Amino acid sequence: MPIDEILLFTLLALVAEIIGTISGFGSSVFFVPVAAYFFDFHSVLGITAIFHVFSNLSKIYFFKRGVNWNIVLYLGIPAIIFVSLGAYLRKFLTVHFLN
User: Could you give the dihedral angle defined by the CA atoms of residues 7, 8, 11 and 17, in that order, rounded to the nearest 10 degrees?
Assistant: First the structure.
């Protein structure tokens, strides 16, 4: 991938994160279509997962005083379980169906 495409992707990913966070829709609404332009479906899934981990860790760091840890436990643990289940079940679905 040429350096100009990497820079364009990085800039668009940053804009998608900012717009998604500010709008309340979530960054994936904007990030996934941008990433799909540059990468194949499986790569987009992996990049989105990494993107979310670092995005959410940075939000927790910056807003740690306002974090309700009970909500993190009640929503975070099921989220991890179901994301893992979805990643496993993805093996059995075709990419055409997922697109």
Answer: -120
How does DSSP assign the chain, residue by residue?
A: --HHHHHHHHHHHHHHHHHHHHHSS-THHHHHHHHHHHS-HHHHHHHHHHHHHHHHHHHHHHTGGG--HHHHHHHHHHHHHHHHHHHHHGGGS-HHHH-
Overall pTM > 0.70: no
Say what the pLDDT of residue 76 is: 83
CA 84 – CA 79 distance, rounded (Å): 8
pLDDT digits (tens, 9 = 90+) for 32-49: 899 999 998 888 888 888
List all residues 6 or more positions away from 90 whose beta carbon is below 8 Å from its beta carbon: 45, 98
How far apart CA 47 and CA 41 sit, in angstroms, is 10
Contact 69, 61 (CB under 8 A): no
